Amino acid sequence: MLVGIFIEGRLRLADLPEVILRAMRITAMVMFIIAASAGFGWLVAQEQLALKLAAWVSEGIAERWMMLLAVNVFLFLICSVMDEIAIMVILGPLLIVLATKFGVDPIHSARSSSQRGDRMAAPPIGYCLFVGMAISGLSLTAVARAIWRWCC
Predict the structure, then answer these.
(1) DSSP per-residue string spanning 15-46
(2) Model-level pTM greater than 0.70?
């Protein structure tokens, strides 16, 4: 804001209430997504679904590389329809348990599973689309068409 007011001169003090309100709306959209996923993540932890699901997955997969491949393919597909931050909040415990069960360093597992940043902007759910819509004032279709060639 200081740059907009004092250096570039495009932002006037009279515009500040509107700018702050717009920033609050955008922040509220992102925080709502994170809050909803945190609640579901708590439920997953409370019911110990991560341990149960890791045991079930490890029964069907024998090799470490197969587990890493399956996790990356799964994350690629799920990130197309769900927000990446929500996925990491919900599936984080599962991925850590699964990685240690197969002898993979949890740091390596977190690094490889967080490489789905390209899907944050991918239609239909990527939350970067909604932030882009709020900032630009364009429709979801217009924003998705504009970024489609870079993320898919």
Answers:
(1) GHHHHHHHHHHHHHHHHHHHHHHHHHHHHHHH
(2) no
What does the H/E/C string look like for 111-130?
HHHCCCHHHHHCCCCCHHHH
Residues 6+ apart with CB under 8 A from 76: 116, 119
Q: Which of 4-13, 87-96, 122-131 shows the lowest per-residue confidence on average (mean pLDDT)?
A: 122-131
Contact status, residue 113 vs residue 105, Cβ threshold 8 Å: no
Q: How far is CA 26 from the centre of its chain?
A: 16
Let me know the angle formed at the C-alpha of 59 by 87 and 92, rounded to the nearest 5 degrees: 20
In tens, the pLDDT along 52-98 reads 877 887 788 888 888 888 887 887 777 766 666 777 777 777 788 88
pLDDT at 21: 92
CA-based angle 89:93:94, to the nearest 5?
110
How many residues are there in the chain?
A: 152
The CA distance from 22 to 113, in Å, is 33
